[in-house]
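Margin note: ligand = 5-O-phosphono-beta-D-ribofuranosylamine.
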Amino acid sequence: MANRKLAILLSGRGSNFVALYDAIRRGDLDAEICCVVGNVPDAAGIARAQEFGLPAIVLPSKGVERAAYERRLVETLRPYDPALVCLAGFMRILAAEFLREFPGRVLNIHPALLPSFPGLHAQRQALEHGVKVTGCTVHFVDQGVDTGPILLQRAVDVHNGDTEELLSARILSQEHQLYWRAVALALNRMHAP
Ligand code: GRF
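Resulting structure:
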């Protein structure tokens, strides 16, 4: 049987993780969440994973040197044998060691139309720049910041008088519809005959 297991990495609220979980439950996404790993002890996303009865693991990253942290992450994920590692609001940059373990198998979702507005506060950057259209992107992770090959994108209009909160909410609802479609695409490509 093809491996369709997803490992989720998150740092906060976890709404993108919940959207993936819901897509699986609805039968829209043929996949299985094998574990949820958080690097922040009180991340709400970890509590949700526990509610769902999924393996939920907290690996605090504060004060841990990057290479050592990535080794621990790899050791934690390896036994679950994920087909894909899905970053869902995971606020750490992953480097060579981690990516070597999962080559071309790490996905991220970003709240802008990359390559515009990479990094933090993408929605604020879009407002400050005055763009009329922004959106969200699911991409493969490489060693840069939000630079890897793009899988799927959705556009979101910027409205007159938008605040960062309003725009972020409008983008987020599109993120929730985009991520599972991108995961399905990545899994299907991986298992194409
Ligand atoms: C999302 O906006 C995502 O694009 C970005 O971090 C945020 C995570 O939100 N990478 P949530 O934790 O999934 O609700």
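The chain is about 40% helix and 20% strand.
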